[in-house]
Write a structure and sequence with these properties.
heterodimer, A: alpha+beta, 3 strands, B: Rossmann fold
């Protein structure tokens, strides 16, 4: 069993109105000094065994299905079972 | 024009309307096609078959529940493979709202639609300016025409980088612009764009909801469908 973590964030130049709304809520709840909040996505993909992880295919799908390269950046990594509590 | 749309179409032109799981406006789009004088042909997301249609409408709604990103999963539906190939070959394709989002996800159109700047879902009758008549879907208009059609979306904020926006304007590919206030934060008030050839057009507002006085703010939306019909009949 292996676990692949894919994280997707809006590109820095793309406005993130959801992050702005969260930032405003943090301020209302008394957290001071928050300069910025950006909201993203995290995909946790479990595969049967690590030998089966096709890195080129994972990268292709992370950059097409899981993210839209026009507005989002992605990063992915394979984690061992011991980290699999993620 | 009679009060009820014909099912055969007076022109012989056949315009397909795709239904995905979660599509809402396919029936209205088919009705608009019929009112314009063409025969609406239902297309199914799971069939990689365009049924020899002369043009295709990707209607509005929430395909696949807008999961992941709006239009992101619909892009990979079986019907999209022949559709993308045909669009690249010149088939007229109109994407409305969720259909526009799908066209951006397929990269048939540049840019992307993101969450409205206000975070609010916006539903209102929207005034637009038709910026160009040089597309398959706007040839019955004059540049500068003002139309009113419904707008209803939560993720209609058109974004693209400055280079793409400059290119769209230089090539006369901004097809519709918002008037009377930008409803969603779209860059340069862009409501709709086309590809370089002008056969693929996407817009967020809904022309198919403005084809009859009884049910819409007017009939300004009909012009998009009659434009396509003109292009097909003259082809």
């Amino acid at each position: 069993m292996a676990r692949i973590i894919v994280e997707v964030m809006l590109k820095p130049e793309i406005l993130d109105p959801q992050g702005q709304a969260v930032k405003n809520a943090l301020g209302r709840l008394g957290l001071t000094g928050v300069a910025d909040v950006r909201q993203g996505k995290r995909f946790v993909i479990d595969v049967d065994d690590e030998a089966g992880v096709d890195e080129a295919r994972i990268d292709e799908l992370a950059g097409s299905l899981l993210s839209n390269p026009v507005i989002e950046d992605y990063a992915w990594r394979v984690v061992a079972d011991t980290e699999a509590g993620a | 024009m009679t009060s009820s749309p014909t099912s055969e179409g007076v022109s012989g032109a056949r315009i397909g309307v795709v239904t995905f799981p979660g599509t809402l406006d396919d029936v209205d789009a088919s009705r608009a096609v019929a009112l314009a004088g063409a025969e609406p042909v239902t297309l199914w997301h799971g069939d990689a078959d365009l049924r020899d249609v002369d043009a295709v409408v990707l209607p509005g709604g929430f395909s696949y529940g807008d999961y992941l990103r709006c239009g992101a999963i619909a892009r990979f539906a079986p019907v999209m493979e022949p559709l993308v190939a045909a669009a690249r070959g010149g088939l007229p394709v109109l994407g409305i709202c969720n259909g526009f989002q799908i066209l951006c996800e397929t990269h048939l159109l540049p840019g992307a639609l993101t969450r409205n700047e206000s975070l609010h879902f916006v539903c209102r009758d929207q005034r637009l300016r038709v910026e160009t008549a040089d597309t398959f879907w706007t040839s019955d208009f004059e540049p500068g025409d003002e139309i009113v059609i419904p707008l209803k979306n939560g993720e209609g904020n058109y974004v693209a980088d400055e280079r793409v926006l400059d290119e769209l304007e230089a090539e006369n590919r901004v097809v519709f612009r918002y008037l009377g206030g930008n409803p969603n934060g779209s860059r340069r008030d862009i409501a709709g764009i086309s590809n370089a050839r002008g056969n693929v057009v996407g817009l967020m507002p809904h022309p198919e909801h403005a084809v009859e006085d009884l049910t819409g703010p007017g009939t300004d939306g009909l012009g998009l469908f009659t434009s396509a019909l003109t292009a097909i009949v003259n082809a």
